[in-house]
Each structure stands twice: as C-alpha cells, then as structure tokens.
Amino acid sequence: MKHVAAKALLVASSLFLMHGAALAGDQDFTIVNKTGYPLKHIYVSEAKSDSWDEDILGRDVLNDGEYFEVSFGKGEKTCKWDMKVAYDDGETAVWEALDLCKISKLTLKWNKNTGVTSALKE
Question: Is 122 in a helix, a strand, or coil?
Fold first, then answer.
C-alpha cells in the first residue's frame, strides 16, 4: 500500500502549524479511504469559513484502502472544522462542523445505491 502521509504531513503542517515547536494538536486525525475510488483533493477549513484552505493532498491522490494523517499545531484551539473531498471525476462530498477534538479517525465510504459518501467517526 502506498503511504502518502509523510508528504501530506508536510503540506498539512504548512497550513496548520504555528511558529515554534511542531507538537501534536488535539485536532489531529486520520482519513481512511474505503470508497472504492481515488480521492483527488481534500480540503479542511475552520467551520463556517467562506472559502476552503489549500488542498492538503497537494499533487498526490488518496487511493482506495490508503490513509492520510492530518496534523495541527499544538497551539491550535479551534475544534470545529469543515472537510471537503473531491473524487477524480469531480464529484464532491462535504462534512460541516466536525469536532476534531473528539474525532481521531474518519473512514470514508461510498454507497453505490444512494451515491452518497459517508464518514464513520471514531
């Protein structure tokens, strides 16, 4: 299994780490792709933001069965975040106000009967 977390951590760090020590934040979480399809983009922004922050995957894709670790700086206090994922065909799924202080893993699944991508929160 290809592991993209190392590069993703660097990209995510540039978005979320404050100046100083790069210690784990309470909001750190892992995204697991169990959709059956590659995810081309993942965006995470503070809840109710007017725009999405940069794609934290960068140039990589998150293939089915792979996971991606998202890290925040120790100084980050915000718990509620929105997340958007985009498939390589342009279809998207959005989750609002995820309490990342209480979530350590999101397992994404796609239901072929309903066409809906769900997120199992752990």
Answer: coil
DSSP labels, 96-109: EEEETTT-SEEEEE
Q: If pLDDT is split at 50, 70 and 90, which confidence band does 24 have?
A: low
Q: Domain of residue 76: give its range.
A: 5-121
pLDDT, tens digit, 9 for 90 and up, residues 50-60: 999 999 998 78
Structural domain count of the chain: 1
Other beta carbons within 10 Å of 18 = 13
> What is the C-alpha to C-alpha distance for residues 67 and 70, in angstroms, rounded to an integer?
10
Give the end-to-end CA distance of the chain in Å, rounded to a whole number.
22
Q: Give pTM, 2 decimals.
A: 0.78
Q: Locate 5 and state its tokens.
A: 């977390």
Query: Residue 79 belongs to a domain with what CATH number?
Result: 2.60.40.2890
